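User: Please predict the structure of the protein below. I'd like the answer in structure-token form so I can feed it into my own downstream comparison script.

Assistant: Understood. Taking the following sequence of 276 residues as input:
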Amino acid sequence: MAKRTPEQKAARKIHAAINRDKIREYANRYYAENKENIREKERAKQSDELRERRQLYHQANREERNRKSREWKVNNAGSVRDYARRQREANPDLFKERSNKWQRDNAEYVKEQRRLAKLDPEKIARDRERRKRWWAKNRERILEKTREQRKLRRSIYVARTRNKRAAARGADGEVTYEQIMALWELQNGLCVFFASCGNLLEKKKNGYHVDHIEPICPQDPNRPIGGNRIENIQLLCGSCNIRKSNKDPYGFAQANGLLFCDITNVAPKRSQLHRR
């Protein structure tokens, strides 16, 4: 078969671009009607003899093939970038694992390239512009994530400070931020004395108070000190916690019109939080 001229190749490309949908529809229909024959031909192509001949051809023409591949990538840079982006979005974990593995296997090269990049003013300028574009594109997402991280760090810091204050007053044990959030879910975001106060708790600064059921500084000096453990913790609204202060929990509950009941079935649920 005679080779096509450049004009013929250009005409075929134009025809393919204009009739892309029709060509794709025809190809799909042809494949559906001739699936078995196509698969049989593919299996025949994978025979040992053909595979060996193909390998020999690739080895003999490696430089030429690589040159053509580089030229094609340069001439179709936009398509290559779009394809790579779609692959990264579809397989983020796979690409991240590959990138980390390559950096581990080439640690010295990566380190040297980073050192050289710091000495190249053009590279520094390009990186600065790239970071500015990335920041402008992802500004809202970054700010939202930063706010969430600050809120989490503050909550963890508050929990640690609370544990230090309790330890200074002679209470044993500690309560983590994760246990407090699990207790929040157990209480459904309601104050323990919701029946009398009707207040909801909020996950924000001063939105809820962490109260020791048995006070760690009781009014009655003869009463034992409550422990700083999740079994001795309840979440109250600000007004209830201030009114309760270090009073006897049973007397405070009765004063707010609450009746006592058998809590043996509730205690195991609260004790489970300590093991989380």
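That's the full token string. Confidence is low (pLDDT under 50) at residues 261-276.
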